[in-house]
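Can't paste images in this forum, so I'm doing it all in text. The chain is below; anyone willing to post the predicted structure tokens underneath?
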Amino acid sequence: MAALILWLGGYAVLCAVRPFAPCRKCGGVGEIERFGKPKMCPRCLGDKLRLRVGRRMHNAWRRTRTAGTRPTPERIGR
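Text version of the structure:
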């Protein structure tokens, strides 16, 4: 159990420090080979990077929390 908590903590820090990772489909090259011809990677669209799953979950949580909270006077600009 402690190993799982340690791994999750390390992954959370990794997602905060380096939110992008090399694309798994093209291996960070930006192109894949189809029928002997190079083609732009459909997953990363040639960017060579992808957003980590943990970072995607964090961004979705932040959007949901921001949308569900009332604006305070500091956020309105008073």
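The first helix runs from residue 2 to 17. The CA atoms of residues 32 and 39 lie 5 Å apart.
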